[in-house]
Automatic annotation (TrEMBL):
SMART domains: PBPb. Residues 1-32 form the signal peptide. The keyword Calcium does not apply. The keyword Signal applies. It comes from the Bacteria. One of its GO terms (biological process) is amino acid transport. Residues 37-261 form the Solute-binding protein family 3/N-terminal domain. One of its GO terms (cellular component) is outer membrane-bounded periplasmic space. It comes from Mycolicibacter virginiensis. Belongs to the bacterial solute-binding protein 3 family. Keywords: Signal, Transport. InterPro entries: Bact_solute-bind_prot3, SBP_3_CS, Solute-binding_3/MltF_N. This is Glutamate-binding protein.
Length: 273
């Protein structure tokens, strides 16, 4: 009798220990460990991708991806803590352990790979231009060289590309794309540049006010940022993304969120194991 009980207690303690170990292995940088939540960084102001609505809830393609992955890691919607992750703060948020992962229109690049790791990619997009609907003199990157005022965001790949390749452009860097779009609306700048899915979201939200011009002039592959060296989490996120693509949820999320902006459903980019 007594031996059986002792064994039972022992087995229970092992189970608790194993669960604790699994949690630690999953997120070595879990900022909200104590609350039993997982912390995810997203944008709050990019319609179609990730937007915080007036009622406080979040919606968009990145949010759907983030929630799907969280569910596969064992965190339902009520166990997610959302943090705003502006472009210029993403590496810092991961390095400081303030978020467990980032789903924030975050392009995979070699220079970012020095500081963080990426799961995915889960979406291919590219840089483009947004102008006011009545604009006729900006038709592509070439027309920017005539000292046009172009807005993009600090710490983003599109801002860096303009700085490196289009020296004739007056680049103004703001903290968020929504601030750029406001400046475009009131005439303070001539165009906004970033990934076309982001620009299309603003355009769909403001019918008749803006238009996208020219072709994509880069390839942006969105990855899910994790802390450098957290390979266990990275692999589990990759498993979740694969599952999301296989079971039709990826496609459904694309149609829901980018349908209004008029994008045809592409094939998801191959995941880099
Ligand atoms: N995908 C680009 C980047 O990661 C632009 C979008 C953004 O700033 O979030 O920099």
């Amino acid at each position: 009798m007594r031996t059986a009980r002792t064994l039972q207690v022992l087995a229970r303690s092992w189970a608790v220990l194993a669960a604790a170990f699994a949690m630690t292995a999953l997120c070595t940088a879990c900022s909200a460990h104590d609350s039993g939540k997982i912390t995810i960084g997203v944008k709050f102001d990019q319609p179609g991708l990730s937007v915080k609505k007036p009622d406080g809830t979040l919606g968009g393609f990145d949010v759907d991806v983030a929630r799907y992955v969280a569910a596969r890691l064992g965190y339902g919607p009520d166990r997610i803590a959302w943090i705003e992750a502006p472009s210029g703060q993403r590496e810092m948020l991961l390095r400081n352990g303030q978020v467990d992962y980032l789903v924030a229109t975050y392009s995979i690049t070699d220079s970012r790979r020095q500081k963080v790791d990426f799961a995915g990619p889960y979406l291919l997009t590219g840089q483009s231009l947004l102008v006011r609907a009545d604009n006729t003199d900006i038709t592509g990157t070439a027309s920017l060289q005539r000292h046009k005022k172009l807005c993009s965001v600090s710490g983003s790949t599109p801002a860096q590309r303009i700085k490196d390749r289009y020296p004739g452009v007056q680049l103004q860097r703001y903290d968020t794309y929504s601030a750029c779009v406001e400046a475009l609306r009131n005439g303070a700048i001539d165009a906004v540049t970033t990934d076309d899915v982001i620009l299309a979201g603003y355009s769909a939200q403001n019918p008749g006010a803006f238009k996208l011009v020219g072709e994509r002039f880069s390839q942006e592959l969105y990855g899910i940022g994790v802390r450098k060296g957290n390979d266990g989490l990275r692999q589990r996120i990759n498993d979740a993304l694969e599952e999301m693509e296989r079971d039709g949820s990826w496609r459904a999320a694309f149609v829901d969120n980018f349908g209004p902006a008029g994008f045809a459903v592409p094939e998801p980019p191959p995941i880099e194991r």
